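User: These chains co-purify. Model them together.
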Amino acid sequence: MTNLNHRTVDALRINHGELLRNWAADMEANTSQAALKAGELQQQMTEFLRLFVRGVEAGSPGSLATGEWSEMRHFLEKLSYNWAVMGVDSQETAAFIFSLKRPVMVLLQREFGDEALFFVEQLWVVSEFIDVLAMHTISTFQKSREAVIKRQQEELLELSTPVVKLWDGILALPMIGTLDSQRTQVVMESLLQRIVDTGSQIAIIDIIGVPTVDTLVAQHLLKTVTAIRLMGADCIISGVRPQIAQTIVHLGLDLQGIVTKANLADALALALARTGLSVGRAS
Amino acid sequence: MNSVRSGSHPVRLEQDVVLARQAVRKLAQECGLRLVDQTKLVTAVSELARNTVVYGGGGEMDWEVLEDGPRKGIRLVFRDEGPGIADLKLALTDGWTSGGGLGLGLTGARRLVDEFDIASTPGVGTRVTIVRWN
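Assistant: Joint model of the two components:
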């Protein structure tokens, strides 16, 4: 990437107030920027332009790693991260930087319009600089979005595994949603750990919130039940709805040897009876 | 028997299995399938879509809403361009698996639907067609 001619750099520096005004006017006309406050946007644009002029004085941005441009890089990373979190979309984020091209073009045309070759050459170089900045912003924006999604996934994973103590020695695990292997792994681990911690004898796995029980889910359940038994505890599966029961029969799944109940109340009653407790009406 | 409308869903990743299930559940409700039949069809989709992802290396699910006089139904085609199945008879045996599963997915899916057809050429791909009527 070539550097800008010093005359262009001077023109940009001297006219940067005008550049900012034109850029702001364009932004206002073209984008909604609903998520951003006007004052905040103005501040970002002023800062961007200050760093841009400072950068072009030093030379080409290259990969943005060099000294003079590194402050710009940090600024763009912070900006795109903030916008990603605020829910500004990627198009608007890109437009923020690309929209600088027109005011720059207008300025250079006025300054060097009568030197066609020089004008075109300088315009191309500036345009390349802006592309590099925009590219970097978008890739950071993308990374920030991915980080947000990953965090949400982890939060969901946490949410989906509450192990509840129903009574002394009786634990319940209400499963909700899709049982993909990663989640089942987490569920199984936390249940087995709680069995050890509480010294429970019976664990109830409630599957009323699981919409589809296919062979993979069944396999996960069977493995969990086997692991619970190996630890010396017993397992009851509750929440088997009629349509799920019929489907399991047709699938040919063998759940013999596993105690199942239609609802959690029945499972709790059975668990209480097994631990030698009975529930009666206080008279 | 005529086709009312049709479409296609990509089945490439684990997450697509969930999306395919949701799409078929919606279609099944629109076709007036009873809850038990909805659940059966969705479970079959879950098995076949997972096979497409895990064994077929990803593919497509084509869906079609059928009308045959007063009857309404759904036809689904799962196709991939994976390694194919060398021995179909073996693959349609309860309890046999080439992976680490229970070996009931394909046979189970066959029992959950009204019509079931499988065609596979080693090295070319696999195509499973199922139909469920209301």
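Chain B has a mean pLDDT of 91.
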